[in-house]
């Protein structure tokens, strides 16, 4: 029940004033004095009680509430007081506290989101500076994009070198969705004019199933359940390089792709442009390097018709072993280079020795044994190949320490050199020489196994044995 405190207090004060006036006028009547004094005290006590109950206690509660608020404690509101005025103040204070709580909660969520976004951007920048391959970078990017945008799936499509086709290079979905994998993976400008329009304008586009799309665009962007698709061009130095595509099953009313998410995705997609450009530059450099390496290997092999194709075959066998050992693309690329260059030092061996029809003399063999050192010396002048020198210099070491040039043993020998030793020996046994015909593959494999633990690393021989029947490996010339 609401009590009008102002009227009650005014009535008590008026009554106290009346009693004091009566007391003054009747002060000579000693018989009434005790009664008047008692009434006045009773009225004062009532005023004090009402003041404490309805004014001072609510004000103290309000002060305690402000102190809790200042200390960051929003756990309990101030108790409601009797009386309209104090109750209004308390209600307003509690409403203010609730609003502050909401604002702080929103601020916490915003800070948390900004921190996560910053972490994603830092993670992507670190990935660009890592030694990961272009495909590994794209796959990590597509996962981070899907996680950051909180969409159902994300795909990254890259323009080919002629800039006439979009090719899907990486896909990630939050759950196993076969329909995402079955979407179209390659389109041309004639098939998808709308997407090319986004790339030409370098502007993102938010599409819905009901939009006017070509058949190829629908097949690329929409499966069975998608309702919204966001397309963000991948741009670097004002040149479009591809498209990041985000698919979402939720309806647009649920705001799955808001402005904040789009801004974050645009920033991350721009980093893909840097990655793609770096990947293309690296690809060109790798192709040029391989052409240079092939030219150097062929220069050596032209000194002897009997060694023609030796470096390519050894490289092919080495790549078989590397794949059987689980080496990644970058490791295999390095192994390909050392395979092609492993005999580069033979450029200093006289042709008369390389083409000799009989067995070498001890003096001639000493000259041949210098070729790993000579190869290391040649490559030491080229910074691009320095990391491959140990494998080339030590590919004639024996597992038991009886090889050359440094009599290394076991794991002291670089792993790539141990792989080359097996591949080189296998080709030497199976290829024709001026003084003999090459032996059958089965016999050469048997001899490798017999020499395992002595001349060769047993694990490498076993890996080659597992890999050799599979002839589907990439050749050195591809």
Structure overview:
The structure is a single chain. The chain is an alpha+beta fold. 57% of the residues lie in helices and 9% in strands. The protein is built from 17 helices and 6 strands. It has a 6-stranded antiparallel sheet. The longest helix is centred in the N-terminal third of the chain and has 45 residues, at 84-128. It is elongated and about 145 Å long.
- Tell me which CATH architecture of the largest domain applies here: Orthogonal Bundle
| First-to-last CA distance | 92 Å
**Structural class, judged by helices and strands?**
alpha+beta
Order of helix and strand elements from N to C terminus: HHHHEEHEHEHEEHHHHHHHHHH
Number of helices: 17
Beta-strand fraction estimate: 5-15%
Strand order of the largest sheet: 3-2-1-6-5-4
Summarize the amount of helix as a percent range: 55-70%
The dominant shape is elongated
What is the gyration radius calculated from CA atoms? 43 Å
The description of the largest β-sheet is: 6 strands, antiparallel
CATH class of the largest domain: Mainly Alpha
CATH topology of the largest domain: Hypothetical protein af1432
The CATH homologous superfamily of the largest domain corresponds to Hypothetical protein af1432
Question: What is the mean predicted local confidence, pLDDT?
Answer: 76
Q: What's the total number of strands?
A: 6
